[in-house]
Write a structure and sequence with these properties.
- By secondary structure, this protein is low in regular secondary structure.
- The chain contains no helices and no strands.
- It is extended and about 60 Å long.
Amino acid sequence: GNLLDVSSSMTTNAGVLAALTANSLTSGTGGALNISTTGLNGTGYGLSVTGPSGATALTNGLVQISAAGAYTGTGGLLNLTAGTTTGNVATLTDSAAMTAGSMLSVVANSATTVTNGLVNIAGNALTTGSALKLTNAGTALTGNLLDVSSSMTTNAGVLAAFTANSLTSGS
């Protein structure tokens, strides 16, 4: 059974089914929602979000996170922290044969100067393996496993830079 069950048989809704508001919280480590699953093990989950099936499109996505503030800490808008030594911290899986769109799209239309890159991968304690690995298990690749392209008309930088200042052997 469920400890709390909020349901609705509405067919149209201009608002939301349930709203949590913590507008007066200005300091501290509190939050509007805390999900603790310390006793959960096995095949359970802390939060499950299931969207519509079939060809129904969600204009704004199944989960939408938005804010306009400046992020000065490490969390930013979404912070994933794990203490696992095996497995994956985050996995994106498409169970259909994707023919258009992207599995992950990073767009910064108004970024003029970014010191750490739009995507930053830091493998500071990495001793073996790869910080970024591109693989293809298919046998009939007609596209590119890595495609780097630019429509720059003036070049004040470089399209791709590889630096290994401390490399003393190897390639």
